Give the backbone structure.
Amino acid sequence: MKVVYVIDSLASKGGAERIISEKMSYMAERFGYDVTVITCYQSFENNPNTYHLSPEVRQVNLNIPYYSQYSVKYPKRLFVKWSLYKRLGKELTQAIETIDPDILVSVSYFNADMVSGIRCRAAKVVEAHESRLFTLQLEGKSLSTVKRLSTRLYEWWYFRRVEHRAHTVVCLTKGDAKLWYKTRKVEVIPNFSAMPIYRVSDCNAKRVIAVGRLEWQKGYDMLLKAWAEVERHHPDWELNIFGSGRLEMKLKELANSLGLKTITMIPFTPNISEEYAKSSICVLSSHFEGFSLVLLEAMRHGVPCVSFDCPYGPSDVLVDGKCGFTVTVGDIQALADKISLLIENKELRQRFSAAALQRAEHFNVDRIMLRWKQLFEKLILKSETS
């Protein structure tokens, strides 16, 4: 079976890039599939892949200079952007015609309308890694009425094209799948975590961990405000945030203004498994998620979690009151209270830890990858008999 994945780049340090790399490697090595990934905007010489990719997976870099549009001002930028879009369409079509795949997968919503519209014999799959609800919104920004209307219009046009062109849209959660009721077929296949686990947490360390990009989506400003309340009652505990991003300086300024003394921001580390194992609680304070690999990774290390019940993902992974807690998005006091409850109750942490390890088995890599295999085989069978 020939499978082609299309993604903007594999150089980013994101959850989607990690899971796609692991998934393609699994398909090539375990299923024996002929797998190719087409990266559209990545210059491999200057921006190598962040995560391991099996040598059995072929990588084609189109190296479209997407960011060159930002070197010019409007209205010329619109012309440059359109030219790059047309170039991408042409080169992507040529690459796919040369490979002639059985399955063509658009990762996330990266030009999913273009990818699913390419004329070829392949079954077109859109693999969503973020909720449709938040895909085209500008994070944390107040939009003018004209900008809001134009965004909504483009959103309607974009998703309508995907709904008519894609054979299947695969969502990570049931909540997101409900938004795709107009498409031909919707499947729900959650993510897995293939991260090697060398040891699990004993939940004794006085340490809380948060993992993710320092961006608006992750809601770290709310986490810092919640931690101010936690630190007041538990000054012997520390909060470590692992990640980097545009809001690093603003978050450090906020931490200083809140007078926080037990918080540390640490850049991305390839040894995050060891950091989970050295923590007793994991916190997710996001405005929204596609699934949340962070919660799954923490649970695989036996770390109890406290999370905002944001759309969509945490409630699909975390069972409230059994292996952690979910609270209403934006309820900073509730977030602080649940963190403090776990800090104050070691027996509860250990009970949640055992339950987290059991719950994580529902997202076993072999179990999840079998569902992908069954989906691809079903799509090919359908195309052969139609």
Observations:
- Residues 207-363 form a domain with the Rossmann fold fold (CATH 3.40.50.2000).
- The first helix runs from residue 15 to 31.
- The chain has 13 helices and 13 strands.
- The two ends are 18 Å apart (CA to CA).
